[in-house]
Amino acid sequence: MSALYRTLKYAAILLWSAFVIAPFLWALTTSFKTANGITGGPTYIPWLQYEPSIEGWRLLFSSGGGGIQIGGPYLDSVIVTVSASLISLVLGTLAAYGLSRFTYRAGFVRNADITFFFISQRIMPPVVLAIPFFLMLQFLELLDTKIGLIIVYIALLMPIAVWVMVDFFNTVPRELDESAMLDGCSPFEAFWRVILPNSKPGLVVAGLFCLIFGWNDFFFAFTLTFTQTQLLPVAIVALNSSVTPWWSLSAAALVSVAPLVAVAFILESYLSRGNLAGAVR
Amino acid sequence: MSLVATELTHRIDGVAHLDGISCALERGRFYVVVGPTLSGKTTLLHTLAGLNVPDTGTITLDGADLAAVPVWSRSVSMVYQQFINYPHLSVYENIAFPLHRRRLAQAEIDSRVRAIAETVGLTPLLARLPGALSGGQQQRVALARSLVKGSDLLLLDEPLVNLDYKLREQLREEFLNIFSAQSRSILIYTTADPNEALLFDAEVLVMHEGRLLQVGTAQSVYAHPATTTVARIFSDPPMNLLPGSLDDTGLRLSKDVLLARPRHLDSLAPGPYVFGVHPGDVALDASGIASEVELAEISGSETFLHVRHGDMRLVAHLSGVHAYAFGENVQIALDSAKLFAFTPDGGLAAAPASGV
Amino acid sequence: MSVERGKLVFILPGLIVLVAIILFPLLFTIRVSLSSWDVAQPGLDWIGVTNYLRLAQDTRFWESFGRLALMAVGSVALQYLLGFGLALLVWRDVRARRFFRVLFLIPMMTTPVIMAVIWRTVFHESLGPANDVLHLLGMAPLPWLSQAGLAMTSVIIVEVWQWTPFMFLMLLAGLMSLPREPFLAAAIDGAGPIRTFLRVTFPMIAPISIGAIVIRLIEASKILDTVYVITSGGPGTATETSSYYIFIRGLRDFQIGYAASLSFTYLVIMAISLTVIAKVLARAMLVKDAAA
Fold first, then answer.
1. Is residue C134 part of a domain?
2. Helical H runs in chain C?
3. pLDDT reported for residue A37
């Protein structure tokens, strides 16, 4: 290809990369500002355009005066997301194995329909479920609790686990299951002792997807929890509407998103092993 | 003790994978199922193993109906075409796996595993993972795993077809030694290659489109194929089938070929027949039938010459490498003493005398 | 056979949980929609289809669909074009591929709401860098969040930032899985890059394009978080999507019965539209391929 094409190509890529990084950089510099760096108009370079301070970051661990105790929401998010993801992974993987290996038939409903039922839950707009979930949890006295939220998240994350694992199990040769059964394993033992140990790549991707979607939820956490349980996205958005200064807001936002950047690296290394082009579907 | 299958039928989307299969297999015997692809061999094995439930028919072992016994309680082993081993376990653990399920003592398991590994030539590889082995080694592991539990039924589904030629020959020999050394199990081996069946010199079951066409020793099926279909399946390249007739003047082939009536066909009534001759019994002979070459297929150190005379087509199996041009004229001769005669509806009427 | 009984063990736990957690709420919603449950009169009574008659007249509800369509289609179209363009640029270049795959993965992984909080500061009319950049380019500052059309644009920009990577990754995976032979054949036939793209690349990747677009449309149609944070549906109702409106009615005004009827109607409309769109897209892309 001509040199012109190559320059244009790298220019385009560079431009897009700048666009991708821009908000992070902006939040980063902003987190080190104080009132001076903001009120006169946007500033970018520390020391040259504004006097940096770590006030924004310090405020992450205090309350009052624009501070947020970020530890609490972080912990809540971890507990809720990890629990829900684990349970969803277990239930979803079991169901996915069944759908991949066996033929189910109830009336006119078959495997493909059941799979579609699981996966089509993604079409459900959260709003539609918010009201009944709210009333249900209120009835069960589980509003504003971690357990209530975990139950709701399981319903949301299980379809993801099923979707990834069905695709994955379909790539494992059925002869492996057969061999295990011929060697004396019942179907469940075959699943447990032979197929599962060989499913690590699929489980990792399914698990990571569950963690990401669970961690990133805002709406259900927002409508179903208030003061006793507060997840990270809710806490950050709560800051947004009050008089929180931009510097602590930016610091809080960056800290919340940091683990996900780490997960992005992990996920990429799994995807690049090539064995999961299907999971990206 | 015997395994008796009665009227096994299995249809998928209207196509019969098994169409009324019945047979009786004895313990300690080695059976080879021969048939082209999609003849139902794999379905038959799956059904005998219990992995597939037939639409109709029964399978009994020593008189007891197997339908009530789930797969994991049966005494069956299977070796597949694709090298199937447990990827996450070492060779040792792979072979030990079926024994663990039986809850045997550790010492017992260890001695059995090592004995089998020795028989199959795997002793130096016991600590490796299947992924680190070559194709031939992986199949040995699969074989070891299937032998170690001494099951009543040992099924092998074209196990050598994914290996290269030399390895195939070597493993075939080893298989034969191992198989002839044991006397408890029923061994069923499938292949699409009739030469393999002849090499094993075992009891043969010929399958085609889900049906069992003939059962007998390899030699007898080769010498007396029951139908033209069997004749074509059980010979590679397939037997030449030439429509013709017998009458007072002799044996007619095509419009203008007249041969003297061979002795072994004396008892046949005059009329139309389909004559069969193995490619190996077709030779180049200066005094033979004039034909033109359509194709000279060179395979290894042999040549398969496809010739045509009028509307009669033949394949001759010649040793050595011979290059012929398309359309070249050659003279071919058929050894009439080696001709088979089939009735027009395909049944065998007469076969060459043995020893000829 | 015992295999038959064994297989239920696998699917029943998940199926039961899902049915309990999703199906029952849905049926419950329908029942609630036939009541007049709100702050003043909590509880399930029966008023028949009154709520549905009311929503038929609710222009704010119907207008929200238009805004939703504009937002969803606009952002997904941009995501597709940009994602596809980037994938094409990077497809054959191994070094660039890995670096950009990680880089581009990051926006997708971040919490949309939290990024929206950051974007809100970016679009701030006097204190944010957006107008500063325009100033550098010699253009006048824009009222990003206080003018109807621009507010919609701001939301679309944020969505494009967040989700173009998804398109990029899917299309890249698709491009990399294409067989080489058709491209070699095209090269031998003397096809230039544009022809090769139109006749070979694009048709072959059509199924994946459709899949990616449909998935993104489904997700985009649920949009609420971003709108809530950046514009709160405003200015006025300029960026109020259907989800947002239902949220206001149900969980702000607490008109639960009415909101339930809005929810159910919204769900039915979405389910039908998305299925229709998916089928139309599938046919359009595949017919084009057959004709090519």
1. yes
2. 2-18, 24-33, 50-56, 59-90, 94-109, 112-122, 129-136, 148-176, 181-188, 193-196, 202-220, 225-230, 242-247, 256-291
3. 67
- Asked if B84 lies within 8 A of A173 by C-beta distance, the reply is yes
Task: Provide the domain count of chain C.
Answer: 1
Residue C15 located in a structural domain:
no
Whether C285 shows a pLDDT value over 90: the answer reads: no
Higher pLDDT, A243 or B277: B277
Going by C-alpha positions, the residue among C43, C15, C16, C49 that lies closest to residue C30 is C49
For the domain that residue C135 is a member of, what is the CATH number? 1.10.3720.10
Of the options 3.90.550.10, 1.10.3720.10, 3.30.460.10, 3.90.1150.10, the CATH number for the domain spanning A71-245? 1.10.3720.10
Per cent of chain C over pLDDT 90 is 9
Give the pLDDT confidence of A197-214 residue by residue, as tens digits: 988 888 988 998 899 889
Q: What is the mean pLDDT of residues B178-205?
A: 86
B70 to chain C nearest CA, in Å?
Answer: 6
pLDDT for residue A150 is more than 90: yes
For chain A, the domains span 3-53, 71-245
Domains and CATH numbers, chain B: 2-233 (3.40.50.300), 240-350 (2.40.50.140)
Query: How many Å lie between the alpha carbon of C3 and the closest alpha carbon of chain B?
Result: 8
| Residue C274 and residue A123 in contact, taking contact as beta carbons nearer than 8 Å | yes
pLDDT of residue A81: 93
Domain annotation covers residue C182:
yes
- Select from A84, A79, A98 the least CA-distant residue to A210: A84
Terminal Cα-to-Cα distance of chain B (whole angstroms): 38
Contact C230, C119 (CB under 8 A): yes
Q: How buried is A189 (Cβ within 10 angstroms: 0-12 exposed, 13-18 middle, 19+ buried)?
A: middle
- Quick one: average pLDDT of B291-307? 85
* Residue B210 near residue B18 (C-beta atoms within 8 A): yes
Question: Which chain A residue is nearest to residue B89, measuring alpha carbons?
Answer: A194
* Amino acid identity, position A85: S
Task: Number of A to B CB contacts under 8 A, please give it.
Answer: 50
> For chain A, what is the mean pLDDT?
82
Query: Residue B254 burial by CB count (10 A; 0-12/13-18/19+): exposed, middle or buried?
Result: middle
Question: Which tens digit of pLDDT belongs to each residue from C240-272?
Answer: 888 888 888 888 888 888 888 998 899 888 888
Question: Is A198 within 8 Å of chain B by CB?
Answer: yes
Q: How confident is the model at residue B354 (pLDDT cuts 50, 70, 90)?
A: low
Q: Look at residue B62 and tell me whether its pLDDT is greater than 50.
A: yes
Domain extent, residue C77, equals 58-291
